[in-house]
Amino acid sequence: MLLTALISAMALSLQFPDPGTFESPDWKPDFTPPQEVELGETVAFFTHASRHFDPLAVTKPAVERVTATMKSRKWTTIYLHDKYNSSNPAWMYLYRDWSPTAYVGSDVGHINMDFSKVRHVVSLGGYFGQCQRSTMTDAIRCWRRDAPKSDFRVTQVVDGIFCVNEFMEFRDPYYQKVRDYFYGTLRKRHPKAVIPVSHTLERIETHDQQVDFLCRQLPPVPSEVNVILDLDGRCETVQVSRLKNAATLVLAWRTSTDLLKAERPEVAPDDVVRRRLKRGLSRMGPMPRR
Question: Is there a contact between 160 and 49 (Cβ–Cβ < 8 Å)?
Answer without folding.
Answer: yes
